[in-house]
Amino acid sequence: MAFRYEGLDTKVEELRLPEPDRSRFDHAAVPTVGLVFQPDQRWSVYGSYATSFDPQTVTALDVNGQNTFDPEKGQQLEGGVKFQSLAGKFDATLSVFDIVKSNVLVEIEGGYYEQIGEERSQGAEVDLRLQPWPGFQAILGYTYTDARVTQDKATSTRPSREGAQLINSAKNAFNVWARYDLTNTGALRGLGFGVGLIYRGYRPGTFPGQVIRGDPVPGQPMASTVIDLPGYFRADLGIYYARPRYEVTLHVNNVADKLYYESAFNTIQIRPGRPREATLSMRVRF
Question: What is the number of domains present in the chain?
Answer without folding.
Answer: 1
